[in-house]
TrEMBL record, chains A, B:
Pfam families: LacI (PF00356), Peripla_BP_1 (PF00532). The lineage of its organism: Bacteria, Bacillati, Actinomycetota, Actinomycetes, Micrococcales. The keyword Cytoplasm does not apply. Signal peptide: none annotated. This is LacI family DNA-binding transcriptional regulator. It comes from Sanguibacter biliveldensis. Residues 3-59 form the HTH lacI-type domain. SUPFAM superfamilies: lambda repressor-like DNA-binding domains, Periplasmic binding protein-like I. PANTHER family: LACI-RELATED TRANSCRIPTIONAL REPRESSOR, LACTOSE OPERON REPRESSOR. GO terms for molecular function: DNA-binding transcription factor activity; transcription cis-regulatory region binding. Keywords: DNA-binding, Transcription, Transcription regulation. Gene3D superfamilies: 3.40.50.2300, lambda repressor-like DNA-binding domains. SMART domains: HTH_LACI (SM00354).
Amino acid sequence: MTVTLSDVAREAGVSLATASRAINGSANRTVRPELRERVLAAAARLRYSPDANAQAMARGRTTALGLIVHDIADPYFSTIASGVTAAAERAGLVVTLASTDRDPDREMAFVELMQRQRARAIIVAGGRYDDEAANAALAEALVEYRSRGGGAAAVGQPLLGVDTVVIENRSATAELARQLHGRGYRRFAALAGPAHHLTAHERFDGFRGSLAELGAPVDPDLVVPCAFTRDGGYEAMEQLIARGVVGRRDDPSTSVDAVFAVNDVMAVGAMAAARAAGLDVPADVAIAGFDDIITLRDITPSLTTIRLPLADIGAMVTELALAPDNESPRLVPVDGEVILRDSTPPRS
Amino acid sequence: MTVTLSDVAREAGVSLATASRAINGSANRTVRPELRERVLAAAARLRYSPDANAQAMARGRTTALGLIVHDIADPYFSTIASGVTAAAERAGLVVTLASTDRDPDREMAFVELMQRQRARAIIVAGGRYDDEAANAALAEALVEYRSRGGGAAAVGQPLLGVDTVVIENRSATAELARQLHGRGYRRFAALAGPAHHLTAHERFDGFRGSLAELGAPVDPDLVVPCAFTRDGGYEAMEQLIARGVVGRRDDPSTSVDAVFAVNDVMAVGAMAAARAAGLDVPADVAIAGFDDIITLRDITPSLTTIRLPLADIGAMVTELALAPDNESPRLVPVDGEVILRDSTPPRS
DNA sequence: TTGTAGGCGTTATCAT
DNA sequence: ATGATAACGCCTACAA
């Protein structure tokens, strides 16, 4: 049914070997132009399409690159993914995508799957949870994978024992805190995200540490754990408002002048909650986020946040994953850039 | 170096065939439990990992599903992609992703690539351009692919000759127009998107048609072509404002009371332009979009738009692509749902 | 139930 | 420069 290289060879009146050489122009390209033409013509005539699987088997290497993200619908990950696909295309590789919804079992299963596919490398994108067992298991799976010749790299925290593009959450939020302090804010509340979410934790931690140094420590009572989502931010903010710590600026019982949410969508949720409560942002309360989600750049008031070069990060992690094997995991730090906007105006 | 099934067989003291049957539990699972155990144990001991490429070759079928999107970083496509990956996982398939940036050549190249990989099916997501040649070429490539046993499906316009989840842009915007008319709007302008962008065209066309029927035809002068992006919306709106057709409500020269942008990010850009010009939305001008981008649901004023079940669409198109071959391309229409919000309040 | 052997489509090592 | 011919790792009639 399907036309094989043998068919092409026969049609061109040459041997299988010659046909192979003519078509892929292998290492020692030793095939007379004339024959070469004949083979190519035959291939075209027969609409020959090389079987990548057969090639992979014969060559002993594939052209696949595995990419694991928590949720491809999340703009954070889809932007990284776009960087990865671009870099992969440049490298002549094909990206196999898995959206695991943060399920450790599915992550493991996908690594296993990529191992079977003999993929060239695996990229794990996205912050980890504070789950020793799960991280260790995944790390081990990656060690195994690498021991069999695959490449591996991650973006987020350097917890997997592989080359990692490390997102410098702490220093970024520390700088954000300094700049907000510089704009006159002193009494902060934080929408801190889920308890075991390391990225959330790091972001808040940098923020808190910096403020402590500046002599404006965050009151632990004003740190609200919540989901890493828009609704999480909304509910956490509602709670602060219900407790009366966030309210009208002229209300003496109000004790918070700025709220830091560990990501943009939470910040937006918080804004919505504030508005729903009849508060004005930033007049009554300032709000800052993290990520600088593109589609959110036009919200009103414009949101102070931290920008990460996500597409570049995708390209970088691809380079790492594809780089020749090396000893100690390389760590490539990436800084966020503080973007001050209208949601945190200088406070007078 | 790598351990093969033969190694496992030897280790277990059985034949290659038995090892194969024990491990993949093939069709007629005829292997004594005892032996089966021994093989599995040996496999585990040796850390055997089946070679998917070899299996694919021997079995004559792969487990790959190709997905082509215009831009994976775009929430529209990443949400569809999440639906596809979920459905593919259920079907035991692996998704190979290509983000082609609307480049016909890259689309063709990817189809070709998937052909070589002997992928089970190809999904083409995203509206087409009004480019006969490019569409015809892609359609032909897909015909070729299908003639070789692959499945194919698309989402958007039914122009590729394959099963398609057809986005009913026209009827959705027609309904939007009716509802806006019902809210009292009469003088519309439209940010129509790029000239040859079929999705943009359909959306505007449904809108215009409906208004014509209602006796409130859109003045051609108030239809502004522009890029399908936030900046496109911004600039087009700037232009309307500069021309004086959009302005303060109490300004008698203002002739537009509502602006329809063919997608949400353009609508947001338009809002930004209006604000930059000192106008109030919706007091001075109402604005509506299309897509109901999740991250935009909290903008102020909340945006009237049309919601598409993108993740479901991803799942549906996967079903289509995987369905047993059939004759005439099946077309599955999907309607958008009009969501009226604050950006287009009842006009008094 | 288990084993033997041929085949899947290429590549690559040898001679020639 | 070209052509046989082993691999590559697995599946699956077919035979035993």
